[in-house]
């Protein structure tokens, strides 16, 4: 009997680690400070003054932004200025490192313990709202994003007609980088010519087709859709359509045909950058986050342009893309909602968006900033702007990604026997109910 | 088994007699637990026991009152907030948090269970003391009781803390995570904003159904089979490899054994995940190994042979099923053998020399000695630890996860359930929770893994640890 207990406990402790996930939660009623009865003597038209007046003691805020040195430095500067702006109040603002791509995953582990203000990529907007983690931007105090920021960036922050975040940068999409010494400007508009030039020079072209984010570009370009359904969870996708021109299968075969080229490499970001540094790669589909590496490697030969066209069924089709934005959100569970909103507004105002652009090279979402000569002279931003008309907002459900990645991998390898069947299965997975 | 039943019955029978035959104070202890102690002159003990009872009642009122009534539904009031744009303050309703309701209810139940045990023990104890007193025997004072705890009953004191630890860090989380498997806790039902509730066996049903888009069943069976193959192969390859390595190093003819041993131990000194990440990169599609292979023409040669598909341009060491399975096991041998070598070295040095010498005198060959004496001895000593390593390998997250970060499956059915061919149950579970917040399915997979591990342990321990094994070996 005793032996059995021991062995049971042994086995239990093996699996006990499983229990470690997500059980920790702080006290129940940590709901934000109950509404301090509004001071009737305070001027009702100036909520910020009211807030300053009602604030006693130190205001603790946590801000999550990208871990890169550029971001950390510029955010530190912005936060210091914010403290000066509201010098009547004693702030204790902590800046944490959190890649925008992972904000959702880490925040939702324990939303009550998460940052008050955080940066995130706009593809997470839907799921963050679904989890109730985002404070709605129902009122603004220092500026109005609806007037100053571009429509696209606002749309990225909007779910069901309600704005949930403040646009910060508008350059999180992808476009084409190329080495002018290998690919002349006039060839950069066509994938076939790019691949031919690369083959001739013994170089390669990189694009991560086995990532559904990039794979989308081919199908979107050919007029096929992948969109979020009204339920906000499932994806509507017609990549397997047979009644469109071109059909889904024709697009699939076109991708496989392009990938057959010796020069075509299905590589992730890190591998692309390594290949560019080694001088093996002469063009890639990538984003502003790589602009530094690429310009270091190619110098004045650096070219950036909208995505090229590719050949489907003998016709040239312009590739589409996902546009991408970085947004600043306020945690709905913040204990300092008011101050968190003011900080988020401050980070994303016109002046600070410009600061962020200068520090990181990421294009602003503010309309005026976008017109400034600094921004328009950046080749990467210019390329993104010319891609903009073919770009669409990233609104897909959770089940888009894994089946999409898998489809991309299959298409690159080209070992399928029936493109239609492959697409049917992928679309069934993409459109499946979220369980 | 029969014995267990009898002792369980006696447990309650004894309690019954204590209540029936106890005097008025013993009976009163049913309500105020210290009463009997006071009557028997054990005042301090009486106060402590009553204090525990008061603490229990307070805790149960708190937990039972707040959380138990909601356990059936796991909460009904969803969070609602109201933001006042003028004061910039927020009001939140008094909402239910399903996660906390479940957690505290379980804590409450565990507390109640252990209190019940203590309650019964207390009555029996009081009855015992009452009998002693009636018989005119000595009744322990508080001081004597305390002394007994560090002398005669020291094992109770010693085991108290670990037992408490096991309950808090093992029992409660396991019960809690098991319960999640019977709820709909997933991306759409995430507390504190949303509520989740009981759904019965629905998730288990999902795990065993299979269609193209709803492929949990398909993926589960395949991942389970690979998990078991992996656990067994990984354990035995490192085990055998470790013994042979130790044997070679310990051989009289080997020069500088200490140096060789040190070389292998150094591989242990580097953190495993660093090694794995580096090796994973080295064998990646564009890693250094592939660079060398394509330069010396191996890649082209394999393409010509048709072993890898034409135009791939690299050897898919860690990116295709089959290739990846074999590579993972090979890399694991490299990472795991030094550990096994160390423990085998210790064993080999401790083999009773009289047996070895006797065998030599009888004219046994080296091979005979190894298979007839050394191996049985090692198996006898290491058998139980083999079982634990199999279980550790079932849950060997690091090796699989770190080596296959870039793996993309081309099998739609795997993709539709967010799994892939080289996943273990545990890495699949991790992806479901971490990337897809699918806690309910992860919990179901966890339960199944748990059952498998328990079954394995019970089976093999009862085989390995039978009392007469030692004589058998001798």
Task: Describe the structure in your own words.
The complex is a heterodimer of chains A (435) and B (474). Chain A is an alpha/beta fold. Chain A has 19 helices and 18 strands. The two termini of chain A are 41 Å apart. Chain A has a 5-stranded mixed sheet with strand order 2-1-3-17-6. In chain A, strands 11-8-12-7-13 form a 5-stranded mixed sheet, with helices on both faces. Chain A has a two-stranded antiparallel sheet with strand order 4-5. In chain A, strand 1, helix 3 and strand 2 form a beta-alpha-beta unit. Chain A folds into 2 domains: 148 residues, Periplasmic binding protein-like II (D-Maltodextrin-Binding Protein, domain 2), CATH 3.40.190.10; 196 residues, Periplasmic binding protein-like II (D-Maltodextrin-Binding Protein, domain 2), CATH 3.40.190. Chain B is mostly helical. In chain B, helix 5 packs antiparallel against helix 7 and helix 7 packs across helix 20. A two-stranded antiparallel sheet of chain B has the order 1-2. In chain B, strand 1 and strand 2 form a beta hairpin. Chain B starts with a helix and ends with a helix. Chains A and B meet through helix 1, helix 2, helix 11, helix 13 and helix 18 of A and strand 1, strand 2, helix 5, helix 7 and helix 16 of B.
The percentage of residues in β strands of chain A lies in 15-25%
Extract low-pLDDT stretches of chain A.
1-44
Helix count from the secondary structure assignment of chain B: 21
Helix content of chain B: 55-70%
CATH H-level homologous superfamily name of the largest domain in chain B: MetI-like
Q: Which strand order does the major sheet of chain B show?
A: 1-2
End-to-end separation of chain A: 41 Å
The interface involving the most residues is between: A-B, 89 and 85 residues
The portion of residues forming beta strands of chain B comes to under 5%
SS elements, strand count of chain A: 18
Main CATH class of the largest domain in chain B:
Mainly Alpha
User: Biggest sheet of chain A: strands, sense, closure?
Assistant: 5 strands, mixed
The major sheet of chain B is characterized as: 2 strands, antiparallel
Average pLDDT taken over every residue of chain B? 86
Count of separate structural domains of chain B: 2
Shape of chain A: globular
Order of helices and strands of chain B: HHHHEEHHHHHHHHHHHHHHHHH
Gyration radius from CA atoms of chain A, angstroms: 24 Å
CATH superfamily of the largest domain in chain A: Periplasmic binding protein-like II
